[in-house]
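Q: What does the assembly look like in three dimensions?
Context provided by user:
Components: three
Sequences:
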Amino acid sequence: MKTKTLAELAEYVGGRVVGNPNLKISSAATLEGAENGEISFLANRKYLKLLRTTKAAAVVVQEELESPAALLVADDPYYAFTQIVVLLHGHRKHKKFGISAKASIAESAALGKDVHIHDFVTINENVRLGDRCILYPGVFIGPDAEVGDDCVLYPNVVIYDRCKVGNRVIIHANATVGEDGFGFATHDGVHHKIPHIGRAIIEDDVELGAACAIERGTLDDTVVSKGSKLGDAVVIGHGTRVGPHCLLVPQVGVAGSTTLGHHCVAAGQVGISGHLHIGNRVTMAAQSGVANNLADGAVVFGSPAFDANKAKRAYSLIKYLPETVKGVRKLAKRVSALENGR
Amino acid sequence: MKTKTLAELAEYVGGRVVGNPNLKISSAATLEGAENGEISFLANRKYLKLLRTTKAAAVVVQEELESPAALLVADDPYYAFTQIVVLLHGHRKHKKFGISAKASIAESAALGKDVHIHDFVTINENVRLGDRCILYPGVFIGPDAEVGDDCVLYPNVVIYDRCKVGNRVIIHANATVGEDGFGFATHDGVHHKIPHIGRAIIEDDVELGAACAIERGTLDDTVVSKGSKLGDAVVIGHGTRVGPHCLLVPQVGVAGSTTLGHHCVAAGQVGISGHLHIGNRVTMAAQSGVANNLADGAVVFGSPAFDANKAKRAYSLIKYLPETVKGVRKLAKRVSALENGR
Amino acid sequence: MKTKTLAELAEYVGGRVVGNPNLKISSAATLEGAENGEISFLANRKYLKLLRTTKAAAVVVQEELESPAALLVADDPYYAFTQIVVLLHGHRKHKKFGISAKASIAESAALGKDVHIHDFVTINENVRLGDRCILYPGVFIGPDAEVGDDCVLYPNVVIYDRCKVGNRVIIHANATVGEDGFGFATHDGVHHKIPHIGRAIIEDDVELGAACAIERGTLDDTVVSKGSKLGDAVVIGHGTRVGPHCLLVPQVGVAGSTTLGHHCVAAGQVGISGHLHIGNRVTMAAQSGVANNLADGAVVFGSPAFDANKAKRAYSLIKYLPETVKGVRKLAKRVSALENGR
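A: Here is the predicted structure of the complete assembly.
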């Protein structure tokens, strides 16, 4: 941890100070948990009350608000705060290990400079590994696979043969990239496995959560495009293309041969069917089941999913179904009675 | 396996025998599968028919019922039966292995007494490991992490740096504790990773299923409190607190910064949104999507979830939507006709 | 890759050629991605347009259709195509490794002929491993477990003690077989673990996806029957029996003590409750929540699930709930007015 003055932090993030610029800040915390010398943030007005009672030394905010803390006003407070956390705390420091003698590395593998390969790692034939990669114990990189520069593969990550991982990719523990997709030809009641000759390609700056599974393509490649972030236990089907800068929250599943545009967001447990075209900047609310193509900018909810504004209203009315169903039946009788002149 | 008389078992669990107390019992089985010398249980009257045809020597029941088997009557038959299974069969016996020379253990790690550390285990710098722990192959314990006494970590369990695991914790294969949470500040369309300076804390007597993923906190800690049991593939978001003695069944997902009280039950595939307060003794039926705070004792179903009694009735009426929607339209015409004097 | 003439391929799959039988075919591709010398397939008339513009040399089809490519007409085009992909590309070739000196193999383990056991594999006491098995790094086979002939266990697959895996079984990376089920007896607010004395049994020709978790049975065995295929992150509860030749797509969850017949299909994220009887050839649409027994041949959708034809219509009408609920209330007023003679 470093210590900075509030003024230094404000300059670093392009914000301005309201209060004492000489406050010394050494770490970051929540509004509720912050203590002396700590900085916090307010990104949502829902937490205004906490701003008024926080013990933080300073708070990053979007506008001047009442608080016992000094303020650092920034246009995008969460981004400014993130920059400050990186400055003060840094990202995880990985042990500088060199190449362990207890790792199994094929002679034909080409390793970059300054790589750190832990014990019990397996690197197969013809693997190409970029510079400054960190491979934790139990990582497996299959034959002919490629991993770019500055990647971090946490323990027990498995990259199947021929798959390709870009630069600055982070893959969390127990995740799998490039397993065979769920592809079988059923004939006379028996399911015959189709060889998966496609690959899984993880582009630059992607992060994959723990226990993710990215199927390789049957014929085409499966692609997770640059800058996309996938949460824990996300499953991507064979031949699917996740566009750039998407956010797929934990437990999302996307079936095969579907295309997602850029900047799509799928909240927890969303399921997306196969062979669909999802446009750019599409937002899918939690647990939605997406069964149809979606246009750019669509915001959906429900299973099957439709326009979220309408869907949230409609789903909230399911609770009135008992009175509604009964109401229609009763009304039908009353109307019949009226029609028959009682 | 040990052999006990039915009288001994009854005494052990504080129950009473109806039938021959000298029956020798050596193992436990289901009502359908039981054979000579085996004991079974009836916890749900739905299976009364099986009680009448079972070949079990004895059955643990709550009250005297008709059966060809002898009866062991106990107030809480499933609990009594569980005690009997523990007595007769015991919990899994782990190989007494000592500390394998094929494990990688940092010099600065402090290991308790009588620990059993298998091959291919990695224990990093400054790890503190309690007494009598069993670490199966492929387990990884990150720098500065703590594990208490009498824990069992099955193969390929990963504990990230600085995380804390209590006493008598069981973690099943391929589960992950303390990976970075899904936290990004999006700025100009690019997702910037926020360092996760919080930890994941697993308290005493917790059990985590296979392929679970417990994110570490961004600023605060993520906590799974004492006595809670999580099924396979459960994902807990960053900064979330699961209270004591909760049951989270397989594939449940809880987003970040949510608090669950004690003795909550979430059935299969339940999703709980972030930043919520869920009270004590809350029950969430399978596949529910919890989007709002819930009071103590709430029982909910549906997505979005509401009172389960109402929700089960309401959801069961979705099948009448076609006739209901059409019914309203037809009635509207008939009422218009009446209003217009036909 | 091999090269075959189109005539040879047609003979191999029992189809007939329309066009030049002497075309040389060396690989398989999609209709969109295919180039010179490649063969593709059309299994769904939805993609007819692609058939007309494909650059494939030949296409496997069910009937004669307009295309610039030569045609290979076969009764079951996807099955024929699968056979051709196997012929041209083959299944994954595994490194012939023999038995690594870096694997840990108990003396009492019985290994078949021509097995290939990678580094960092653990094979425990009394394991029986069949002929020609391939065990990738990080695989763990617990004491007294059995694995049949011709199995492939990808990296970090964990088979718990006493479990049984049949012949020709494929298990993808980071999957777990035979962990303890989610079984606890709750007494005075504390959850007591019941020992799981059952096993998990994976029969012949099963394939399990990455990060799957198959719980062992409490008293009975959990069974995945012959020929069934499970996608990534599928969880099977304790004591459940998945019948032969089922397809359980990624993220499906089946709770405990449920029986599925043969040839059932569960699409993505389906959840099936415990203690149910699901018949043969039952199809469950994506995200369905199955809460009741289902008869042979049932096709269901929804949560709770019911007949899919009705359910798809009914769920599609949820969007009309606002006008319907409001409509009933308005009609009630208008009918009251009519009843009161205005």
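Follow-up: The mean pLDDT of chain B is 96.
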